[in-house]
Amino acid sequence: xFDSVDRLIAEHRDxxxxxxxxxxxxxxxxxxxxxxxxxxxxxxxxxxEAWTAAVADRDDARELAAAPGEDGEAFAAELPALExxxxxxxxxxxxxxxxxxxxxxxxxxxxxxxxxxxxEAALFAGDLLRMYLRYAESRGWRTEVLSSTPSDLxxxxxxxxxxxxxxxxxxxxxxxxxxxxGGVHRVQRVPVTESQGRIHTSAAGVLVLxxxxxxxxxxxxxxxxxxxxxxxxxxxxxxxxxTDSAVRLTHLPTGIVVSMQNEKSQIQNREAAMRVxxxxxxxxxxxxxxxxxxAARHAQVRTMDRAERIRTYNFPxxxxxxxxxxxxxxxxxxxxxxxxxxxxxxxxxxxxQRRLAALGEEPV
Length: 364
Known about the structure:
Main location: cytoplasm
Structural class: alpha+beta
Helix content: 40-55%
Order of helices and strands: HHHHEHEEHEEEEEHHEEEHH
Radius of gyration: 25 Å
Shape: flat
Strand content: 15-25%
Organism: Micrococcus flavus
Protein name: Peptide chain release factor 1
Function: Peptide chain release factor 1 directs the termination of translation in response to the peptide chain termination codons UAG and UAA.
CATH topology of the largest domain: Alpha-Beta Plaits
InterPro entries: PCRF (IPR005139), Pep_chain_release_fac_I (IPR000352), Pep_chain_release_fac_I_sf (IPR045853), Prokaryotic/Mito_RF (IPR050057), RF-1 (IPR004373)
CATH architecture of the largest domain: 2-Layer Sandwich
């Protein structure tokens, strides 16, 4: 049943040897990738050891239960509990052997953009941005606002935020959690601009991009990137609106355009734009790979398609509902304050169930 375990255990031992090599740590990107894979396989090793021990306990009890007398009866009485423990250990091992998304351990660049609904959509986009910042804070993640365009009433027309994790365990990675947030988020509430108290529906789009670990992972030919500089159009301030500090990058082969103007320095804006451009190119590459593997794509709950409505936030009922998993709860205020754990857990659980179902009866 677990034919692939020996190969993974051998890989785990090899990674341990690599991590003890100073040459590996001289390359930060390689060390990060090796450490991430080592942590992932560490779960497999631990689950396999637990399963092996459970098999040994069950087999020993079976042998001793065959002995005549009270001792045999005592061990026979223990068998049901040992069989149940073995089943649990086998299920745990099976779950950790489910192929993970290779980007799970990555940091992310999260984009939020107001959709249909004008100023109300921008206010809702601002609510979502604060929700993600507070959720990141609760997880001990670091955040950096790369760009943000405010609206007249204090909302956010669009924003890009880098979110960085603090560990190497892919299952606890930033992308492992936030990848389910990509799509259209719909809000139902009475807008601040509504004078007659009518409930309106508006939306905001969220895009979650795995961030590139090292620049050479997604190489860029300078001849394929058009660079334009222009004057920032944000709120006034020293150097803002007076110098050509804003940067627009256009990747000519794909047509992807990234603009940055938050920083006063053209160099800083260019560096931030390059980070976003590489992440978008990495995501494009992943989408092309998924398109070639329909089974893998179908097994995933997440979507990066802004056109797909994934969740509704209903203020009058204090209700949040995820349309992919069927999750519903009347704690909208807590969710918008960053308590996303239960919502994301419902997506993770459904994703694992689908991946398990996709495995079927094939050897793991």
